[in-house]
Amino acid sequence: MTQPPSTLATYDARPTVYTEQLGTEQLRIVPLVPDEDLDLVYAWVKEERARFWGMTEYSRKDVLEVYHFLDPLETHHAFLVLLDGEPKALFQTYEPLHDPVGEAYPARVEDVGMHLLLAPAKQPAPDFTPRLVSALIRFLFTDPAIDRIIVEPDARNSKAVRRLETTCFELGPVIQLAEKEAQLAFLTRERFEKIAAFKNR
User: I want to staple 155 with a disulfide (CB 3.0 to 4.6 A). Which of 72, 83, 160, 183 is the partner?
Assistant: First the structure.
């Protein structure tokens, strides 16, 4: 039987892996629970705006199987990003050395990869995405073993590529993955901290 969609009470009961104040709202990152979150995630990935996520043709069962596969892995993780308890994004991380992308560039143990799918915006807020991405970057760099973030959006996704450049990432080469031609981009801890220090002067 399909589980009902998650409720705010369910989110409240989940462990928080990271939190910070984002403007007037509290940001929380919590683990994705595939069975509980299926309705929510399925609705997001089926939209045309999410075509570069690669699941628009997936059935509910297909989407559930993907996240059931990821759930027990120690190298790949899926999260929901909440603002004041409301889900605003699907956020995934992975270790490139344990992912196909790690075969397309000189991956290091200090690298972490990330994927981000924003929820449909009920009322677009100015600069929301850069502020959210910056918070997610701060979360990733709370791990002292990490010193570089890797992203690899579909090279055709010009909106995502422009977003990378506005959030400090440096574009690398275009690489060929099994499912797409991807634009590789990097952000080192040093670069992020220098830019943050400059903005806070």
Answer: 183
pLDDT tens string, the chain, 201 residues long: the values are 344 455 566 799 999 999 999 989 999 999 999 999 999 999 999 999 999 999 999 999 999 999 999 999 999 999 999 999 999 999 999 999 999 999 999 999 999 999 999 998 877 777 888 899 999 999 999 999 999 999 999 999 998 998 888 888 999 999 999 889 999 999 999 999 998 887 776
Please report, for the domain that includes residue 147, its CATH number: 3.40.630.30
Number of domains in the chain: 1
Tell me which DSSP letter residue 33 carries.
Answer: -
Q: Note the pTM of the prediction, 2 decimals.
A: 0.91
CB 96 within 8 A of CB 111: yes
The answer to whether residue 178 sits within a structural domain is: yes
Give the domain extent around 66: 8-199
